[in-house]
């Protein structure tokens, strides 16, 4: 349950990442939920005056609603830790692990969760070894279809499904637009699901998995944030055994990465009911079309109550 005492909460939203607009929408929704319970909320940009503002005002807790590098790579969280300001979400070290998709895949695979075969390639590799030879080596080891994505970031920006070898060079260019390192991953055919995980101190709890079915094409940036472009099934249309396996994989990934308070784990369920880990998000989207709010509602929880409960958990964690 949410803390009854009114808290002074700073919601961070905006920033300079490619996901700025999504962050602003997430931040507004979080603020609305907290204010509905009587909490005093200030929505702030992560700008040059932020740290001084936090030092001067000493809010009870900061609620980051920042997507992309400004909120998920661990840097801002490290500064909040140094400043002694309680904040909702994963610690610096955990955020850094999850922010790097290749690193997260390695950590989660060691915890026993399946993840697609992949190779990670920095831009410099192509300059040093030659693009043609690098891509030829990749295609000799993998079969299409492939998924090419930036090694960092979210919202499907820079992600390409490669269905023929001659599409790979362009896909690499698109991925490098968003990061200096790209991940090439074997595409797993199956049902795409996302599992929201809540953890307020008693261990991670998987919320009802959400099945994602884009009306056209793939689950792109536009499909994620424009109403009517994706069908969501909450809970996912999975049998009980598969649902249990998906939930177990999500909580295992959350725990292996050391995540805190909330996360969203993206998976593909193959024809045999095996969940394959794709990535974990330390600050999932919280807009009106985002997956985590849908999962929270499907679990019977109130959004404002969940956001306030997470704020109270952050305060408790800071006092330990």
Average pLDDT for all residues:
92
CATH fold call of the largest domain: D-amino Acid Aminotransferase, Chain A, domain 1
Beta-strand percentage?
Answer: 15-25%
Taking the alpha carbons of the first and last residues, their distance comes to 20 Å
One letter per element, helices H and strands E, the order comes to: EHEHEHHHHEHHEEHEEEEHEHEEHH
**Fourth CATH level, the homologous superfamily of the largest domain:** ATP-grasp fold, B domain
Protein described:
- With 320 residues, the protein is α+β, with helices and mostly antiparallel strands.
- It folds into three domains: 8-88, Rossmann fold, CATH 3.40.50; 96-114 and 189-282, 2-Layer Sandwich (D-amino Acid Aminotransferase, Chain A, domain 1); 118-186, ATP-grasp fold, A domain (Dna Ligase, domain 1, 2-Layer Sandwich), CATH 3.30.1490.20.
- Helices cover 40% and strands 22% of the residues.
- It is built from 13 helices and 13 strands.
- Strands 8, 9, 10, 11, 12 and 13 form a six-stranded antiparallel sheet that branches. The chain has a four-stranded antiparallel sheet with strand order 4-7-5-6. It has a three-stranded parallel sheet with strand order 2-1-3.
- Strand 8 and strand 9 form a beta hairpin.
- Helix 1 crosses helix 13 (303-318) and helix 7 packs across helix 8.
- The longest helix has 17 residues, at 240-256.
- The protein is globular and about 60 Å long.
- The two termini are 20 Å apart.
């Amino acid at each position: 349950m949410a803390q009854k005492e009114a808290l002074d909460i700073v919601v961070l939203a905006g920033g300079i990442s490619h996901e700025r607009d999504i962050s602003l929408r997430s931040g507004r929704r979080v603020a609305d939920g907290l204010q509905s319970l009587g909490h005093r909320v200030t929505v702030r940009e992560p700008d040059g005056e932020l740290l001084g503002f936090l030092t001067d005002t000493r809010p009870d807790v900061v609620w980051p609603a920042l997507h992309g590098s400004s909120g998920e790579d661990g840097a801002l969280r490290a500064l909040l830790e140094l400043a002694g300001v309680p904040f909702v979400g994963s610690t610096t070290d955990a955020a850094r692990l999850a922010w790097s998709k290749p690193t997260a895949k390695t950590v989660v695979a060691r915890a026993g969760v399946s993840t697609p075969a992949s190779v990670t390639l920095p831009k410099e590799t192509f300059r040093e070894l030659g693009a043609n030879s690098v891509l030829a080596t990749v295609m000799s080891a993998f079969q299409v279809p492939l998924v090419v994505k930036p090694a960092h970031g979210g919202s499907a920006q820079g992600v390409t499904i490669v269905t023929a070898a001659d599409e790979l060079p362009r896909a690499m260019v698109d991925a490098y637009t968003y990061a200096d390192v790209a991940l090439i991953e074997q595409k797993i055919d199956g049902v795409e699901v996302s599992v929201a995980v809540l953890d307020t101190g008693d261990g991670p709890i998987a919320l009802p998995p959400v099945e994602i079915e884009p009306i056209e094409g793939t689950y792109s940036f536009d499909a994620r944030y424009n109403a009517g472009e994706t069908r969501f099934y909450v809970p996912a249309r999975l049998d009980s055994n598969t649902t249990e396996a998906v939930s177990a994989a999500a909580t295992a990934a959350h725990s292996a990465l050391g995540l805190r308070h909330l996360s969203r784990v993206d998976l593909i369920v193959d024809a045999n009911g095996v969940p394959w880990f794709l990535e974990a998000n330390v600050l999932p989207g919280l807009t009106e079309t985002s997956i985590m709010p849908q999962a929270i509602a499907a679990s019977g929880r109130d959004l404002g109550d969940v956001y306030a409960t997470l704020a109270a958990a952050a305060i408790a964690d800071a006092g330990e």
